[in-house]
TrEMBL record:
Gene3D superfamilies from the UniProt entry: 2.70.98.10
UniProt record, GO biological process: galactose catabolic process via UDP-galactose, Leloir pathway; glucose metabolic process
CDD domains on file: Aldose_epim_Ec_YihR
Domain of life assignment: Bacteria
Protein name: Aldose 1-epimerase
Species: Thermomonospora echinospora
Chain segments carrying region Disordered: 183-204
GO MF term list: aldose 1-epimerase activity; carbohydrate binding
Residues passing through the membrane, by range: none
Record Pfam families: Aldose_epim
Amino acid sequence: MSEQITGSQYEITAGAYRAVVTESGAALRELAWQERPVILSHGADEPAPAALGQLLIPWPNRVDHGRYTHDGQTYQLDISEPELDCAIHGLVRWAPWTAVEHKPDRLRLVHRLLGSAGYPFRLDLDVEYTLAADTGLTVRVTARNSGARTAPYAHGMHPYITVGEPIDDCEVTIPGDRYLPVNDRMIPEGPAQDVTGTPYDRRKPDLLGAQQIDNAYTGLHRDEAGRAWVRLRGGGRAVSFWQDDAQPWLEIYTADALPEGLRRRGLGVEPMTAPPNALASGIDLIHLEPGHTTTGSWGIIAG
């Protein structure tokens, strides 16, 4: 039997939920409820297109020209998005992660990110996936600086929630008071802007239509538990995504450049501790001191 290029496939279940996580990148490859997909997925023997379900560490989104300065020294990351001359989505998307705990409804994987020329810091990373019949999926990411130097750090994840219908025909609710305009290379231009009176104001449920979005939101409305919620509803189904207050930013992507068959079939919802280009701008960047940890959680509920 041939081995899959995404490595071992770890399945967890609870109630009507089932999830599959890959050894490659500790990515969420599948999530289903009552055997209906809740996120866009891909085959076990193909690389994740458009970062489907991947963890974005130690930065989400883009770094302009792959260049940033930390503690007075300038570093150059490999350009992983040459068409826009950017470094995108961190360093662990394709790395092998090790499963250290695998129960029927719970999975923990770890990865040690060692230093490189563009990112000469050392992090011990831990991700935990948990399913519950009543509350769906919870994902918890923890990073510990196991090196001797303060590390610049941010994280995110890249699931695309779906109700099995084109998102043009769905109601979308986005809880952000402000959005971040970007230039033609998808790098932020100026501070976040008030959504009021713009097409980016989706604080109340409304049909998405043909609108294209690939922008970060902040000023997120939260419930009493500190969670901000994105909701997608259509075709008699609904999916809700939440993120805790460790992530003050949320990237929304309407999947316009995905491969045929996936294009605009799901809504990218990316919880982020910092906005695009944070390594360079320093906005909300975490300065993780040696021996210290940082944690964030998010989740998905179908119904």
